[in-house]
Amino acid sequence: MKNRYVLTGATWVTGAFNKVAKAAEEVGQKAKEKVGMAEEEDKRKVVDEFARVHLSESPKPPSSKDEDVHEPRRFESPRQQQQTSPPVAPAQP
Fold first, then answer.
1. Across residues 55-77, what is the average pLDDT?
2. What is the distance between the alpha carbons of residues 1 and 12, in angstroms, rounded to a whole number?
3. For residue 86, what pLDDT band results from cuts at 50, 70 and 90?
4. Which of 41, 46, 62, 85 has a beta carbon 3.0–4.6 Å from 66's, enabling a disulfide?
5. How far is C-alpha 67 from the chain's CA centre?
């Protein structure tokens, strides 16, 4: 390469190529870091959710409303219902 213009042009192209390659490498590295951070955060959320569900305090005691639901019902015979029901007034014409 005796022509100095060719040498200068080749040097400039090589330098530009190296700068672009370096920038692309840095962008790729930052993208990998972001992906890694996102994966770690997702993993942390899953672990926190698991811990919240499975390692929470003991179950809450049932409320009084829940206790009423579980009490056995008492069924009365029709005769018992007639004895305890209030008298019905006769229909007036």
1. 59
2. 15
3. low
4. 62
5. 33
